[in-house]
Amino acid sequence: MNEKLSITQVTPYDASEDESIDRQICIQPSTSFPETDEKLLASAAAKKEKQKDFQSTTSAPIRENRKVFSSMAPLPIKPLDGHGGYLRWKESMLLRAHTLGVAGVLFEDPPTGSDNEAAAAKKKWARDDAICRGHILATLSDRLLPDYARHDTARALWDALARTYDVDTTWINKGRFHELQFDQGGPHLLLEQIAHAQALGAAAKLADDYVADMMCDKLPEAMGTALIITRYDDEVDMDTVWAFARRAAKRGMSQERLWRTTL
Questions:
Q1: Selected residue with higher pLDDT from 179 and 18
Q2: What is this structure's pTM?
Q3: Cα angle vertex 242, ends 236, 215, to 5°?
Q4: 140 with 80: CB under 8 angstroms?
Q5: Locations of Polar residues compositional bias (predicted)?
């Protein structure tokens, strides 16, 4: 008797069922907390605003400090190469030393003492002295540098240069003042010549009233005569001389009229 084999019918695989099971087992609906979300957003916004305010308050001083430091940048100095350029070099070097805050080492004694405060002051002094000495050497010409690099402090270097070039010319300037004769130019040239004569008088260490009195012979005749008349009524000083000369410049007096070279 032949037995008939029964073939069990296989149901096709349906992936949707697994997905349904996965959704039931693994995937849980997200829970929303609207109040908590609002608090987090508000906190983040407040933090961002606070950071923004901090940046705005700190960046402004930084920018201002940058402007200050850029404006304090040392001006270029023409190298010293002899007596003729010493005065300009000296004044320019003093400006740089004061700008850098190290000018004290040129005129003050170094700090003394053995405590911690004195040690800190000595350390700062040594730093300032090295900076100042370096800037002085950097502004000497190649010709002068070997002669002065041997000085190991800024003050010694400064004094050595002064011994060479800062010579007392009182007697020379006194002679120049008395020999000075004004050119017969216009009123603006007259003002320049008065300034030069006054500078010579100061360099010669002459008294202000003496310089003003001697000016009467150097100024245009009419102006000198007016000053002489004023001198009998009141003391004549350089302020009076300047007042007379500036009045002529203000009126735009011609060279001929000022010096009376034409009728």
A1: 179
A2: 0.64
A3: 55
A4: yes
A5: 1-11
In this model, does residue 21 exceed pLDDT 50? no
The residue length of the chain stands at 263
Spatial distance between the Cα atoms of 11 and 24, rounded to a whole number of angstroms: 23
DSSP summary character for residue 114: S
Strand partners, 80: 140
Across the range 223-245, mean pLDDT stands at 82
Q: Which residue has the tokens 């037995």?
A: 3
Neighbours of 188 (CB within 10 A): 12
Closest by Cα among 105, 172, 179, 181 to 136:
105
pLDDT in tens, 224-233: 888 887 766 6
Other beta carbons within 10 angstroms of residue 212's beta carbon come to 21
What residue type is assigned to position 187 of the chain?
A: P
Q: Is the pLDDT at 152 greater than 80, yes or no?
A: yes
Token pair for 19 = 């997905």
CA-CA distance, 237 to 215, in Å (whole number)?
10
Instruction: Please give the DSSP secondary-structure letter assigned to residue 234.
Output: S
